[in-house]
Specification:
The complex is a heterodimer.
Chain A: H1 2-17, E1 20-23, E2 26-30, E3 34-38, E4 42-45, E5 55-58, E6 66-73, H2 100-112, E7 117-128, E8 131-141, E9 148-158, E10 161-170, H3 174-188, E11 190-191
Chain B: H1 5-14, H2 16-22, H3 44-61, H4 69-83, E1 91-95, E2 102-104, E3 109-113, H5 114-119, H6 123-138, H7 141-151, H8 175-178, H9 182-198, H10 204-218, H11 225-228, H12 230-233, H13 238-249, H14 258-265, H15 269-278, H16 282-295, H17 300-313, H18 318-331, H19 338-349, H20 353-366, H21 373-384
Parallel strand pairs in B: 1-3
Antiparallel strand pairs in B: 2-3
Helix pairs in contact in B: 1-13, 4-6, 6-9, 6-10, 9-13, 10-13, 10-16, 15-17, 16-17, 17-18, 17-19, 18-19, 19-20, 20-21
Chain lengths: 193, 385
């Protein structure tokens, strides 16, 4: 009986900690607005790693690979809420009139606000969600554990709303493990009618 | 040089509780304690040292440490001027973290964050902050804090003793200072001022550090820092602190070391400003860079980064002010290529296609391998169509 009670407690605690649901394979809709097609299943993480309006997917765990979708952020929406330690800081708010370099500056702020270093490696035009957009690659050295991360992002502003997808993973070993698949996901991305 | 007894007494009378708690505060003749011996590992202090030693081992390998021998020698020399015999136990690390902070740990490890290096205007101001941290060290405040926390069964708060360093946490705008009590801060202020005055620095610079920081934070969305900023939460209210430090310093003068300081951080200025901009706290950055630019009007990098902060904030008259900054930057020595790109962005936004194309072209001429070269080529091509 004691064992059963303990098991129930553990299950209840785990349920409260994080909601991880399997997504795909096949067509999957993110945030009711962004549809992507995936070949293999990913894990959608709804727990403490969640940041504002974005949706987080991972294969190997959120501290390892990290695929984040921003599905139609409107003017004034935050890329992520302010950290509790900096609740009075200027927020990372998307503006409909933002140009690509300003959007990159927002992401730069997001990735470096914990003291991590962010370096923009490449930025070029591309199509995303069927619209004119851009793609940028970056390197982040994570402050908390000094792990060097590689990242790639696709962004488009459509009807004044931000559609973006970012993929970040440790440069050694992990980034390349899923990067080809992530490129395919980006190509498949479209705004749901 | 030393501070007058009258001033120390005046300060002491204003803080009688501190005097009563800490015993007689022998002002002019206060001497630092002898060098600290490594405590027994079985003691609470020994455990604290061991924990900090582990953090230091990680820090030595950290890619965030600024490994410049000239800068490190310079910081160590300041530490030795201030710390006297304790210099032998001090190890100073400049750490790339774009917030105002420095901290000294019970085992002698001192960290000076790059955000502090950007913000101080001369060696005396840097010595004021380092002297304050040495004050905490000499009075062993972190050990007191540890014991206090243990007494209150609040051991978790002990991590705050060291701010947000290493594995203990990375988000660290202002954390180091928040760990000590106001009385500890007052005591460290007094000792720091005494040490800097004895070392020959102009003690009046100590209050200027706080006035500058307060003005910068006040420009941000949080407004008055004494009410809202975490940095000031456990520090004495900054107006009191400024007034006290200014009163203690009086009319004493001393070494400023502005040229020496500028020469030492010159190789890092672009990186320091770039990190500052990445914080996206544009209101504060504009206040900070304006202060620096007022003192160094011939620096093109300051004009450029202030212009960028204004352009990215894009409030009221920001774009025209930014344009003026970029124009000025491009007239000065060492004009940054990025200023052409920024002029191009604004010209395009204002519908001046020819100006935008010309500015973007000049940017690519100067920086053909820039990370965003593909994006800018696309801009030029769109402007031509």
């Amino acid at each position: 009986m004691k064992k059963l009670a303990l098991s129930l407690v553990v299950v209840a605690l785990l349920a409260g900690c994080a909601g991880v649901v399997k997504v795909g394979p096949g067509e999957t809709v993110v945030g009711n607005k962004l549809a992507v097609t995936i070949d293999t299943a990913w894990n959608q993480f709804n727990g403490a790693g969640q940041q504002g309006p974005s949706t987080l997917w991972t294969v190997d765990g959120i501290t390892v690979d990290n695929l984040r979708f921003y599905a139609g952020l409107k003017d004034g929406d935050l890329l992520a809420p302010n950290a509790p330690q900096a609740k009075d800081a200027r927020p990372l708010a998307f503006k409909a009139a933002m140009r690509p370099d300003e959007i990159v500056a927002l992401y730069q702020g997001l990735y470096s606000r914990d003291g991590s270093s962010f370096t923009l490696d490449k930025m070029e035009p591309t199509e995303f969600v069927g619209s004119k957009g851009f793609r940028f690659q970056y390197t982040v050295v994570r402050k908390v554990d000094e792990v060097k991360l590689s990242g790639v992002a696709w962004v488009a502003v459509r009807d004044g709303q931000l559609y973006a997808m970012t993929y970040t993973a440790p440069r050694l070993g992990f980034f390349t493990r899923h990067s080809v698949q992530v490129e395919q996901i980006a190509k498949s991305a479209r705004v749901k009618a | 040089m030393s501070l007058t007894r009258r001033r120390w007494l005046a300060y002491g009378c204003a803080h009688c509780a501190t005097l009563a708690a800490g015993g007689a505060w022998a002002v002019d003749d206060w001497q630092p304690p002898p060098r600290f011996l490594r405590p027994d590992l079985a003691s609470d202090e020994g455990g604290l040292w061991a924990m900090v030693d582990r953090e230091e081992t990680k820090l030595r390998r950290s890619s965030f440490v600024m490994r410049d021998p000239a800068l490190n020698d310079y910081l160590k020399a300041i530490t030795c001027k201030l710390g006297g015999d304790h210099c032998a136990d001090a190890r100073v690390y400049a750490v790339r973290t774009p917030w105002f902070n420095a901290s000294m740990f019970p085992n002698g490890m001192m960290q000076v964050w790059s955000g502090l290096l950007l913000r101080v205007e001369n060696e005396a101001q840097l010595a004021a902050v380092m002297g304050h941290e040495i004050g905490h060290y000499l009075k062993r405040h972190s050990v007191e804090r540890l014991r206090d926390a243990k007494q209150r069964s609040a051991f978790a708060s002990v991590i705050g003793v060291f701010g947000l360093v290493g594995a203990l946490g990375a988000l660290g705008a202002v954390a180091g200072g928040a760990a000590f009590s106001r009385e500890h801060e007052r005591e460290a202020d007094r000792i720091g001022l005494l040490l800097m005055a004895r070392a020959g620095y102009d003690p009046r610079e100590a209050s200027r550090v706080w006035a500058n920081l307060r003005a910068e934070l006040a420009a941000g969305p949080a407004g008055d820092p004494s009410k809202k900023s975490a940095l000031f939460a456990s520090h004495p209210p900054s107006d009191e602190r400024q007034a006290t430090l200014a009163e203690l310093a009086g009319e004493q003068t001393g070494f400023l070391g502005e040229a020496e300081y500028r020469e030492r951080i010159e190789p890092f200025m672009w990186g320091l400003l770039d990190d500052e901009l990445k914080r996206t706290q544009y209101d504060e950055s504009i206040a900070l860079i304006t202060r620096l630019a007022d003192k160094q009007p011939q620096r093109a990098d300051l004009r450029y980064f202030r212009g960028e902060a204004r352009r990215l904030r894009a409030k009221d008259e920001d774009l025209s002010l930014a344009l003026a900054d970029f124009d000025e930057a491009l007239k000065l020595a060492k004009p940054p290529a990025q200023a052409y790109r920024s002029v191009g962005y604004i010209a395009r936004q204002q519908g001046r296609k020819d100006d935008a194309r010309s500015a973007f072209t000049r940017y690519l001429d100067a920086a053909p391998d820039a990370p965003d070269a593909g994006m800018i080529r696309n801009e030029i091509s769109e402007l031509q169509s």
